[in-house]
């Protein structure tokens, strides 16, 4: 409203249309860099927390003229556990735009500050089979879907690495691993909750080693030891890089973390993580 009041509604609408057109043209040029043949990649999640079967994400992209077709046929059916991930096609298109821009943007000299917007929408067609765990039908538990989000990004990386091996990094820790310490007791002061997201190793890059102690969601900041120990009845007894955790290669992966925590009052520990059965894949 403030923009409309300052510049007028017509000017604001015209500006939006220009931004849409620029994003569309950028996406069209990025898609043109892809070969006109199917490109596929798949990766797995350990299980759904109830059954002991891995969950497969299989993704295929194919350029058809100036459009990009995305297909998730071959992905696992919806599951009994809370790992179902209702994938929003519009958000997927925005993620693809951003990954393509990072992988190939320098080749066509695009504006690095031009964010994805509605302009890319009609250039990408997405097919997610109904009933797979990326497009579940009601009722389907979804509370751990954040563990799937990171793996989905890695599958997209795996596809783009086949075309742009000189710019796409190897995969990282793979999910937003997190823990909760829940205080137990009858008194109000005995009931508390400490929740943290832990970092891990970033994938090796074409030009150098991976980032140590990396968290791919940049909205989640490292919680300082002093803060955690002041607010919660816990003691951080070790916080360090984990020796031997970096994958070897021409360029190594990033080191993971050790964060040893002692609860000073009775508590229950809940831990959510991934990549216990499969390792992040490398490139370099």
From TrEMBL:
Q: Which Pfam families match?
A: Hydantoinase_B
**InterPro entries per the record?**
Hydantoinase_B (IPR003692), Oxoprolinase-like (IPR045079)
The protein's GO terms of the molecular function aspect are:
5-oxoprolinase (ATP-hydrolyzing) activity
User: What Gene Ontology cellular component terms go with this record?
Assistant: cytosol
The organism's place on the tree of life at top rank: Bacteria
Q: Which residues form the Hydantoinase B/oxoprolinase domain?
A: 2-283
User: Which Gene Ontology BP terms does the record give?
Assistant: glutathione metabolic process
Its protein name is Hydantoinase B/oxoprolinase domain-containing protein
Species of provenance: Thermorudis sp
Lineage summary = Bacteria, Pseudomonadati, Thermomicrobiota, Thermomicrobia, Thermomicrobia incertae sedis
């Amino acid at each position: 409203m403030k923009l409309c009041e300052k510049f007028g509604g017509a000017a604001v609408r015209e500006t939006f249309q220009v931004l849409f057109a620029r994003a569309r043209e950028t996406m069209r040029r990025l898609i043109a860099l892809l070969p006109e043949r199917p490109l596929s990649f798949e990766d797995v999640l350990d299980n759904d927390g109830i059954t002991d079967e891995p969950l497969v994400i299989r993704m295929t992209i194919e350029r058809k003229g100036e459009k990009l077709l995305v297909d998730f046929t071959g992905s696992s059916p919806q599951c009994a556990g809370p790992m179902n991930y209702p994938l929003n096609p519009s958000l997927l298109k925005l993620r693809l735009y951003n990954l393509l821009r990072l992988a190939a943007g320098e080749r066509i000299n695009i504006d690095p500050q031009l964010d994805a917007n509605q302009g890319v929408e009609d250039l990408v067609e997405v097919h997610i089979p109904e009933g797979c765990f990326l497009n579940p039908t009601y009722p389907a538990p979804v509370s751990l879907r954040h563990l799937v989000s990171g793996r989905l990004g890695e599958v997209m990386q795996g596809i783009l690495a086949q075309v742009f091996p000189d710019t796409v990094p190897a995969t990282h820790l793979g999910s937003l691993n997190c823990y909760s310490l829940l205080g137990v007791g009858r008194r109000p002061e005995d009931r508390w909750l400490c929740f943290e997201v832990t970092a891990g190793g970033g994938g090796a890059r074409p030009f150098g080693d991976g980032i140590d102690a990396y968290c791919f969601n940049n909205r989640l900041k490292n919680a300082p030891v002093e803060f955690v120990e002041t607010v919660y009845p816990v003691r951080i007894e070790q916080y360090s890089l984990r020796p031997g955790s970096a994958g070897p290669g021409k360029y190594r992966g990033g080191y993971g973390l050790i964060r040893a925590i002692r609860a000073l009052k009775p508590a229950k520990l809940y831990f959510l993580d991934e990549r216990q059965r499969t390792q992040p894949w490398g490139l370099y």
